[in-house]
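Q: Given only this backbone (339 positions), what sequence would you predict?
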C-alpha cells in the first residue's frame, strides 16, 4: 500500500519551495525537508503527506473517551491516529506518537489501514462512529478526509479530537463530512500557547467560534495544570468566552497527570476541578464536566431548566440515560446535542 499522498492544501513557491496551508503554522518547506508536524514533506517541489493509510494507533473506544458527552452517549467509536503533530505541548499525554518524529528518525509509519479497510471494519463490526484522534487530525487531513467521505456514504459518523489549529481552508474541506468535534482550549494566555504549546491562542479561539457557526456539534476541553492555567481569573475568561459563543457548548475540565516534559508538575487535584466546574456554571454554561477523576455527580448531564440528572456517568461508563428523544422527560426541555 502507498504511504504517501500529495497534499491538498499547499502553494508552490519559487526555487522548489512549498507553503503548507493546512494549519496556522503555514510552514514554508525547502526541498527534502518536512514541516513542523514532521509528516508533510517537500519532495521535488511537491508537498506530500507521509503516513497516508498508516495508523500508528487504533482502538474501539466509548465516545465518552473523546470526550464527547452530547453525541450519541454510550456509542462505540473506531479510533485512530498517526504519527506527528503541529504543536509541541510539553504536557502531551500521547507524546509517544505525536512527538516521536521530532525525537528520532522514523522508518515505519504504522499499520496498513486504508480508508476502505477502516470503513469496512466499522460496517462488519457495526461501529457507528469513526474518531480521528490520538494526534492532531489536521496534520493527516488527506487520509482523514478520504476516510470521512467513504464513512459518510455508509452512514457512519465522523468526529475529530483537535487542537483547533487548522486553517479555514482545512475546515471548509472537512465541514461537509464532520459530525462532531472536541477542541482543546489549552489556556487563555498567549504566553502559555507560545511557551508551553508551541502555537498561538487567537487561531484556536477563532476556530471554536467558526466551528459552532458551521453547525458542527462541538465540545471544548481544558486540561488544567496547577500553577499554569488554573487561576480563577483565567478559568472565568475561558468560561465567559465559551458561553459568549453559546451556553450550550459543553466544557470538559480535565485533570493533568505528569507526562512528557512536565514530569515535575503535580497532578491536578479534585478540588481544582470542582472549582473550575463551579466557575463554568456560574458564568452561564449549561453543561460542565470534570474529567480524568471519576465522579458521577460532576460527570452527569443535568437538565438546564429543572436540574434533574438525566445522564449519569462514572468515568467512561453510562450508568443511566433518561433522555427521551433528546429532551428532559420531566420538563420537556431540549438538551443540546445529537442523540
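A: Predicted residues:
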Amino acid at each position: 500500500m502507498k504511504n504517501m499522498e500529495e497534499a491538498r492544501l499547499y502553494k508552490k513557491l519559487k526555487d522548489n519551495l512549498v507553503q503548507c496551508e493546512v494549519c496556522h503554522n503555514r510552514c514554508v518547506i525547502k526541498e527534502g525537508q518536512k514541516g513542523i508536524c514532521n509528516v508533510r514533506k517537500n519532495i521535488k517541489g511537491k508537498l506530500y503527506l507521509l503516513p497516508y493509510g498508516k495508523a500508528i494507533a487504533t482502538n474501539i473506544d466509548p465516545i465518552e473517551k473523546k470526550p464527547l458527552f452530547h453525541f450519541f452517549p454510550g456509542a462505540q467509536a473506531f479510533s485512530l491516529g498517526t504519527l506527528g503533530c503541529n504543536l509541541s505541548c510539553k504536557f502531551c499525554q500521547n507524546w509517544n506518537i505525536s512527538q516521536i518524529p521530532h525525537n528520532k528518525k522514523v522508518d515505519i509509519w504504522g499499520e496498513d489501514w486504508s480508508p476502505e479497510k477502516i470503513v469496512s471494519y466499522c460496517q462488519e463490526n457495526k461501529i457507528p462512529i469513526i474518531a480521528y484522534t490520538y494526534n492532531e487530525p489536521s496534520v493527516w487531513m488527506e487520509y482523514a478526509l478520504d476516510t470521512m467521505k467513504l464513512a459518510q456514504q455508509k452512514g457512519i459518523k465522523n468526529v475529530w479530537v483537535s487542537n483547533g489549529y487548522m486553517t479555514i481552508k482545512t475546515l471548509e474541506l472537512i465541514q461537509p463530512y464532520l459530525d462532531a468535534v472536541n477542541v482543546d482550549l489549552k489556556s487563555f494566555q498567549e504566553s502559555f500557547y507560545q511557551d508551553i504549546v508551541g502555537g498561538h491562542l487567537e487561531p484556536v479561539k477563532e476556530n471554536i467560534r467558526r466551528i459552532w457557526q458551521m453547525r458542527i456539534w462541538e465540545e471544548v476541553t481544558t486540561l488544567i495544570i496547577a500553577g499554569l492555567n488554573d487561576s480563577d481569573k483565567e478559568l472565568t475568561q475561558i468560561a465567559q468566552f465559551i458561553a459568549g459563543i453559546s451556553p450550550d457548548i459543553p466544557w470538559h475540565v480535565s485533570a493533568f497527570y505528569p507526562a512528557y516534559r512536565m514530569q515535575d508538575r503535580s497532578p491536578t487535584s479534585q478540588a481544582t476541578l470542582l472549582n473550575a466546574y463551579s466557575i463554568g456554571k456560574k458564568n452561564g454554561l449549561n453543561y460542565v464536566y470534570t474529567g480524568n477523576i471519576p465522579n458521577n455527580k460532576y460527570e452527569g448531564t443535568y437538565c438546564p431548566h429543572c436540574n434533574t440528572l438525566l445522564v449519569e456517568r462514572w468515568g467512561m461508563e453510562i450508568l443511566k440515560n433518561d433522555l427521551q428523544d433528546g429532551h428532559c422527560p420531566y420538563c420537556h426541555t431540549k438538551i443540546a446535542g445529537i442523540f
